[in-house]
Amino acid sequence: MKAIKIILGIISAFVVVFLLTGLIVKETTYTAQVSISKSIDQVFTAFNNSEDVQNWIPEVQSFEVVNENPGKIGSIYKIVVLNQGQEISMTEKVLAYVPNEKVTLFFDAEGMLKKDDYIFTESNGVTTVTLNASCQSDTFIMACIFPYFKGTFREQDQSYLNNLKVFIEGKVDE
Length: 174
Description:
It comes from Polaribacter atrinae. Helices cover 36% and strands 40% of the residues.
C-alpha cells in the first residue's frame, strides 16, 4: 500500500509540473542561424521565391497565394505540409518585409501559432541568416507541451536553414 501511495505521489507531482508549465511558460523562443557563401541579394531572392521553398523545406506539399499585397506586408499564403504521414494545413502571413534585411512571418498551424523573424546580414560576400522564432498555442494542453519540444523545434528550423544553404550554394549564379 505504501508503494502505491509513493507511485501516485510521484505521478501527481509530474502532472502538476506539466500543467504548471502551461501556466508559467506562455511562449517558447529559440534562435537558429546559417552562413551562406553568396551575396545578400542572391540569398534574399532565393529565400523569398515561393517556387523554390520545396527545395529546402521538403515537407511542403503545396504553396498557394491567398492574397499578395504590393510590398509583401500583409500577404497571406496557404501552405500544406506533410508531417509524419499527416497533411497539415497552415496559413502564413507576412508581418514585415524589408528587402535584403528582414522577413517576419506568422504561421497558424492547427493550434500552433508561430512567429519567425528572419534577419539577413552580409560580411565579405557571406550572408548570415538568423532566425528568431517564437511559438505559442491556442490550447492549454499544447501550451504545456511546447516548452518540452523547444530543442526539436530548433533542430527542425536549423535543418531547414542548412537545406537553404545547400540549395543556394549549389545554384549556378544567374
